[in-house]
Amino acid sequence: MPNITIYTKSYCPYCKKAKALLSSKGAVFVEIDITDDPAQRAAMIERANGRTTVPQIFFGDRHIGGFDDMNALDMRGELDDLLRTAT
Predict the structure, then answer these.
(1) What is the Cβ-side half-sphere exposure of residue 74, based on CA atoms within 13 angstroms?
(2) What is the pLDDT of residues 36-86, one digit of tens each?
(3) What is the distance between the alpha carbons of residues 32 and 48, in angstroms, rounded to a whole number?
(4) How many angstroms separate the Cα of 71 from the Cα of each of 53, 60, 80?
(5) How many CB atoms within 10 Å of residue 44?
(6) Is the dihedral of CA 82, 83, 85, 87 positive or negative?
């Protein structure tokens, strides 16, 4: 299973949905809460090629996007494959 990082804010409903989806798949992830952390927020924006919304999800160095992007992968049946094969 890949190293998964998810940037979140404490009050974000899409962050909660993203974490729930990953957890339902048995995925272990590192959560970086940027609610009150401007340095981590800046790091997320740089890593996500300018995207400022949360969540921002990464499988290793691969940027998956936000919850809607990850959910679309799941609906197409591609998320499970990524969880098994990404590094």
Answers:
(1) 14
(2) 999 999 999 999 999 999 999 999 999 999 999 999 999 999 999 999 875
(3) 14
(4) 16, 18, 11
(5) 23
(6) positive
CB 34 within 8 A of CB 9: yes
Report the C-alpha gap between 38 and 75 in whole angstroms.
33
Q: What angle do CA 35, 49, 46 make, to 5 degrees?
A: 50
15-28: buried (b, 16+ CB within 10 Å) or exposed (e) per residue? Answer: beebbebbeeeebe
Coil vs helix vs strand at 47: helix
